[in-house]
Amino acid sequence: MLKLQGETKFEGTDLESVLEKAKSNFNASCIDEISYKIIQEPSKGFLFGIGKKPLIIEAYPNEKYLINKVKKFLKNILSYFEEDVDININYYNKTLKVFLEGENLGKVIGKQGRNLGSLQHLTMIYVNRMTDTKFDVKLDVGDYRRNRKKNLELIADNAAKKAISTNEKVELAPMFPFERKIIHKYINYNYPKLHTVSMGLEPYRKVVIYPSKNGHN
Questions:
Q1: 128 and 112: one domain?
Q2: Which residues belong to any copy of the R3H domain (predicted)?
Q3: Does 79 lie in the same domain as 106?
Q4: pTM (2 decimals)?
Q5: Which residue segment(s) compose the domain that 168 sits in?
Q6: Which of 17, 18, 146, 160 has its CA 20 to 30 A from that of 169?
């Protein structure tokens, strides 16, 4: 079960009021964004209230909380593009898959997907500030990712052939982490005798392909 920002105990006389406290504490938009478990049932006590016990729960933001926060975050950024964008988010196994749909979203994608990559990177930072557990964020517009993956594999294939024919290292252009991951995976699977490493600092980090497994020419 998804847990964000840690568990916090809340107490009160009834469940509704206690959940309202949790909602306010986590700045949730509705009670449905809060998951909880009861760790102490309330009791009336004995004569004059002696021994009376409050209701105590452990509560934490859940999947709905995360999704709604990310939607709000993205809407604020996308409003600057002056385009109507529908945001759909799926969550599974610590991965958020964000789909943006709409007309004329070329500005959102940007040249060679730079805007899309930056938006994904910012969203990942935003999400991971909510929890100590690392989350992965995958952001896509239509079939852009699929088409970009094909283009990157073609780039990787041509670079690999060049490294083999010249017996020299081949440096690719700077790429986002998800793009470099595609390059590494393609080379390692299709050209096991070649060696790939990522070099440089973001946002200029790039893949270098070496013609031998030990990383030397």
A1: yes
A2: 146-213
A3: yes
A4: 0.68
A5: 146-210
A6: 146
Domain count, the chain: 3
| H-assigned helices in 110-199 | 114-128, 144-166, 177-190
Hey, CA dihedral for 18, 20, 23, 24, is it positive or negative? negative
Q: What is the largest CA-CA distance in the chain?
A: 92
Query: Angle at CA 124, nearest 5°, toward 157 and 30?
Result: 145
Residue labelled with tokens 């239509």:
142
Q: State how far the Cα of 211 lies from the Cα of 191, in Å rounded to an integer.
A: 10
C-beta separation of 159 from 172 below 8 A: yes
**Residue 86 to residue 95: CA distance in whole angstroms:** 20
Return the SS3 of 93. coil
